[in-house]
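Newbie here. four chains, one complex. Structure please?
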Amino acid sequence: MADSTPSLLDNFFSDLPDTPAPIYARLKQAIAHKVASGQWQPNQRVPSEAEWVKALNVSRMTVNRALRELTAEGVLTRQQGLGTFVAQKKAHSALFEVHNIAEEVASRGGVYRAEQLQLLRGKATVEEAVNLGIRTNQEIFRSVILHFENDLPIQLEERTVNAVLAPDYGAQDFTRQTPYVYLMQAAPMTEGEHLVEAVLPNERECDLLQISESEPCLQIKRRTWSGDQIVTAARLLHPGSRFQLFGHFSR
Amino acid sequence: MADSTPSLLDNFFSDLPDTPAPIYARLKQAIAHKVASGQWQPNQRVPSEAEWVKALNVSRMTVNRALRELTAEGVLTRQQGLGTFVAQKKAHSALFEVHNIAEEVASRGGVYRAEQLQLLRGKATVEEAVNLGIRTNQEIFRSVILHFENDLPIQLEERTVNAVLAPDYGAQDFTRQTPYVYLMQAAPMTEGEHLVEAVLPNERECDLLQISESEPCLQIKRRTWSGDQIVTAARLLHPGSRFQLFGHFSR
DNA sequence: ACTTTATAAATGTATATACAAGCTAATGTT
DNA sequence: AACATTAGCTTGTATATACATTTATAAAGT
């Protein structure tokens, strides 16, 4: 389970505000950012409580609280006697966290492939501006991607992206890497919402998804925040016969 | 916001094991049970940290941890200077927690009504036994209920219930109280899972839901645990034109 | 009557300390 | 060489203490 311990504990708070939030919260935020941005990989070892105490000159209980809460939130895992580690990505996954369709397909043992139908930059329309919480003249990206599992369409993805927060979105090749992966490192998600409903897609969409016009689809509209700004809004269309959403909850 | 403070702090742990779990965990469990079973109502005041300290003769930090974690889990809400209170049921609700359709309808300002189409006791079939994780000769209840919002069908609910865990299920009147409410006090839910998909219902179901046969529906299959036993398995059918699932997530 | 000020109560955070319990690796013994 | 023991590091929990912040209430002043 163990790897090596990250080094730079000094100046750990360098790129974070040092006034408003309590110590434990800032430590949580700093660690969560390392994990969300991929700088710390799953199963990698996190500095021990004693190391944090020495490096940051804070009480062990303060460090303990930060690590304990991150563990409760599924960011870290801890093992008595061993240490603290970055959690596996969807270990005890929260609800309905199908953010990366490529991983989802791979985890089922399927072959994943994508076609990029559209990717262009422009100014936001009124509807898009409302969706993203920005002004209408602000730059955005629009992309349409069709995702395949074993050469059968599994998801049609229409996405609008805030170009200020993710400036390199237009330079990505989404047949190689899903938007989710790029967006997570460009502007790590802190919050999100989704709206799920059953719909009958229009003729063009049925054509793309290779389904009959009477086949119902799961439509998921999702918006994700980074801090207090909306990074992206997406509409995901899944053929009902090829896709189910699974969720698990406790307490 | 404040009500009156519950009295019996003595013997609070009376009906709980007193050996294995740490103090803070037992306190959490005891409070969560009071809330889940409805003995403590939303917005009702919970004893202050100081009161718990005096009553249980434990450290304030221990009580603080229990209350703080229950707050993070959405069971309680706290306000500095004021006190600790039982949280509103779906305050910052977890994901897709549409457990009680009556509340859902009411929160939208709609008029709720239900028709009980079936309610009978019997022995579990093979499929039902597998679903509930029991043996095939064990007693179960089966119920079919149609829920209305403003006199339009909003949910068709087929439910199987473990009769051992919820023995009085058959005596309930589900036109007055949803199964969820009874089941929560009979065997408080600790875990659950759901499977969401888009389907086209059969002729009878379309008839009941008053929709055309080409209208897609959201189908939710849900199982809920109490401890390590499955209490109930339900299949919920929602007309796509009248129902959406909304979820919100953080971190 | 109204405003201001003090006071008390409640939660929020931080620290120091202590001991329990789990895991690993070094050490010692047979 | 094989095994048992021990020491050291790790997380887990519990306590006592201190001070900050927020809120409501009571008292004092105008």
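Moderator note: Confidence is low (pLDDT under 50) at residues 1-10, 90-95 of chain A. Chain A is about 25% helix and 30% strand. Thread marked as resolved.
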